[in-house]
């Protein structure tokens, strides 16, 4: 046996994928130290998500608020690119898992990333207000002036489809109730509401929070990191993607494209032309 082979002993191999998330042995499944059989029937799925991501079981009010945010973002119809792509994939002979993966893989910075971006924005503003003792209104005004000067949209506010996102009020109301009960600090909520108020100032139509902004407030108040905000959105939206993929697959239609067969995309290229063959 070479020295290299000798160095790769059992401990080195075992430590290669060391984890504090789960312990799996023959006859044993423990999640963050809890035997899975003790969780089944006693701990909700949202609470299990919290346990797996955070290492401890949440309080009842924390699990309930997390569940509300997960429910709110489940679906937004086949006009959402991620869902449309999953439905098309389901008609192309791929497995249901591949159809769902097709939809999930479209959830990037532009479609699906605004919640994470809003969480980061709220976190940065909160840090500025606390660390530099800057009033919330002043910090928000400075940020909006910079964004307007750069021609940028504020992530998590406004909606291309809804004048007022119907998911905004129940989620923000739930956070406000938790803050009033003293169970959440409310710092991120305060900043989000100030952003909403200043975005609406002087406008005929307000720019209320959308689902991304509302869930960003929930996840930020619950202490999740911004990147996990996108992960939680993906978990939530995967339910809708699965439902749509299954419905489309069950229809029996094959190879369904983005527009109905009688319609063709508008052609904007050169007019009809033929190659010069060089013959007289």
Automatic annotation (TrEMBL):
Annotated protein name in UniProt: citrate synthase (unknown stereospecificity)
Q: In which pathway does it act?
A: Carbohydrate metabolism; tricarboxylic acid cycle
One term of GO molecular function: citrate synthase activity
Q: What class of enzyme is it?
A: transferase
The UniProt similarity line reads: Belongs to the citrate synthase family.
Q: The organism sits in which domain of life?
A: Bacteria
**Residue ranges crossing the lipid bilayer per the database entry:** none
Gene3D superfamilies (UniProt xref): Citrate Synthase, domain 1, Cytochrome P450-Terp, domain 2
Q: Which UniProt keywords apply?
A: Transferase
Q: Does the keyword Nucleus apply?
A: no
Q: Name one GO biological process term.
A: carbohydrate metabolic process
Q: Tell me, what's a Pfam family for it?
A: Citrate_synt
InterPro entries found in the cross-reference section: Citrate_synth-like_lrg_a-sub, Citrate_synth-like_sm_a-sub, Citrate_synthase, Citrate_synthase_sf
GO cellular component assignments: cytosol
The record's annotation in NCBIfam families points to: PRK06224.1-1 (NF004864)
Q: What EC number(s) would the UniProt record show? A: 2.3.3.16
């Amino acid at each position: 046996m070479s020295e290299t082979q000798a160095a790769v002993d059992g401990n080195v191999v075992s430590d290669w994928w060391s984890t504090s998330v789960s312990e799996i042995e023959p006859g044993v499944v423990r999640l963050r130290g809890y035997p899975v059989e003790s969780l089944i029937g006693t701990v909700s799925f949202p609470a299990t998500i919290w346990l797996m991501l955070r290492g401890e079981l949440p309080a009842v009010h924390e699990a309930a608020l997390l569940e509300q945010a997960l429910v709110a973002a489940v679906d937004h119809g086949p006009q959402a690119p991620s869902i449309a792509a999953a439905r098309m994939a389901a008609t192309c002979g791929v497995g249901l898992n591949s159809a769902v993966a097709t939809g999930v893989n479209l959830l990037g910075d532009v479609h699906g990333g605004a919640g994470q971006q809003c969480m980061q924005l709220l976190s940065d503003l909160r840090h500025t207000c606390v660390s530099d003792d800057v009033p919330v209104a002043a910090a928000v005004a400075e940020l909006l002036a910079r964004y307007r000067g750069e021609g940028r949209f504020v992530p998590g506010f406004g909606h291309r489809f809804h004048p007022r996102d119907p998911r905004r009020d129940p989620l923000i109301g739930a956070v406000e109730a938790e803050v009033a009960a003293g169970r959440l600090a409310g710092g991120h909520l305060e900043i989000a509401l100030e952003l909403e108020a200043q975005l609406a100032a002087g406008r005929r139509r307000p720019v209320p929070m959308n689902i991304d902004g509302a869930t960003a407030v929930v996840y930020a108040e619950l202490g999740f990191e911004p990147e996990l905000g996108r992960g939680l959105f993906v978990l939530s939206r995967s339910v809708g993607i699965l439902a749509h993929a299954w419905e489309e697959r069950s229809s029996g239609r094959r190879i369904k494209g983005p527009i109905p067969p009688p319609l063709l995309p508008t052609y904007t290229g050169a007019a009809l032309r033929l190659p010069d063959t060089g013959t007289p």
